[in-house]
Design brief:
Blueprint lengths: L5 H33 L7 H24 L15 E8 L2 E7 L6 E5 L1 E5 L4 E7 L4 E4 L7 E3 L5 E5 L5 E7 L11 E7 L1 H12 L8 H12 L29 E2 L4 E2 L2 H14 L13 H12 L3
Parallel strand pairs: 1-5, 4-10
Antiparallel strand pairs: 1-2, 2-3, 5-8, 6-7, 6-9, 9-10, 11-12
Helix pairs in contact: 1-2, 4-6, 5-6
């Protein structure tokens, strides 16, 4: 796994240097031990070798490594740097709520489990949690940062090249901790601008009779009590915003692919795929209704 941004590259550099320094200490001590075992008793002064090889040498190397690594630590930035894209990420049980806000107009939109960023631009993440401690970690872009209830943390990162980078909650947060993944999608600035403009728009209307059936079933089953579809339902925050769910790559924080079958399977068997999740299973729905809802949700792009 290669670093794809300056923050991750800095961590990788520190890691390799510390590993090399630790290996040098280990090899030196092992060589000293092997040499001592081959010497006759009383032929050397053990106190001098103990002080030099066991205390002085490791102490000098470790002190040098510490002095070198301290300036490499990321600086605390209470405010985002000029030109940074500010994104709010909230850890929930067990998914990620992502909010984009236009500082100039005040308009905003929400998405879930997927963060899209432009390449070559600093991204300032405002990290928080609603229930328990989570830890935001995208190894190829930056280090781990805890997300604490009642406290705002920050993480500054950027991506050097286009790609999809997998992230994961790195702090045990409950029953479905292992199924709390996310994707960071780095796009060219033009691609990101088009995606952002599309996300700002309300949901599209149903284009086919089956999609209209799915939209009506969505309301009948009271899915709008937890999920928002802008331009169609009122505001609900218990579950992810589904206004443009069809444009996302995965469902349920990386649990299932965002395909017609995946959407229907998640609706019908949410508790089978993710026991303890806040969404109930809708096994009572017939195949045609499930297919209609899945089709309508897939059209929301």
């Amino acid at each position: 796994m290669q670093a794809a941004g300056p923050a991750a590259q800095s961590i990788a550099t520190v890691g390799w240097v510390l590993f090399t320094g630790g290996a040098a200490i280990f090899i030196g001590v092992m060589l000293l031990l092997a040499w001592a075992l081959r010497r006759r008793a009383g032929a050397v002064r053990p106190v001098l070798w103990l002080a030099g090889g066991g205390i002085l040498f490791p102490g000098v190397v470790l002190t040098a490594l510490m002095a070198w690594s301290l300036p490499m630590a990321p600086a605390w930035k209470p405010l985002p740097p000029p030109g940074a894209l500010v994104i709010s990420v909230t850890g929930r049980m067990w998914w990620w709520e992502v909010r984009y806000r236009d500082a100039a107009t005040g308009s905003e939109f929400y998405t879930a489990n997927e963060i899209r960023i432009p390449t070559g631009q600093p991204v300032y993440l405002a990290l928080s949690s609603t229930e328990v401690i989570h830890s935001f970690w995208v190894p190829q872009l930056a280090g781990k940062t805890d997300m604490l209830p009642g406290r705002m943390q920050h993480l500054l990162l950027s991506a050097d090249k286009r790609g999809v980078y997998r992230g994961q909650c790195a702090e045990y947060c409950g029953e479905q901790h292992a199924l709390m993944a996310l994707s960071v999608v780095a796009q060219s600035p033009d691609e990101f601008a088009k995606w952002r403009a599309a996300q700002m728009r309300p949901a599209t209307t149903a284009a086919t009779p089956q999609q209209a059936m799915g939209r009506d079933a969505f309301l009948t089953q009271r899915c709008n009590a937890c999920h928002t579809v802008r331009g169609f339902t009122g505001e609900a925050k218990l579950g992810p915003d589904l206004t443009h769910v069809g444009s996302r790559m995965q469902l349920a924080a990386g649990t299932l692919p965002n395909t017609p079958q995946g959407r229907a399977d998640w609706i019908a068997h949410a508790q089978l795929h993710k026991p303890g999740a806040r969404m109930p299973s809708y096994e009572r729905l017939d195949t045609a209704t499930l297919a209609a809802i899945a089709d309508w949700l897939g059209s929301l792009k």
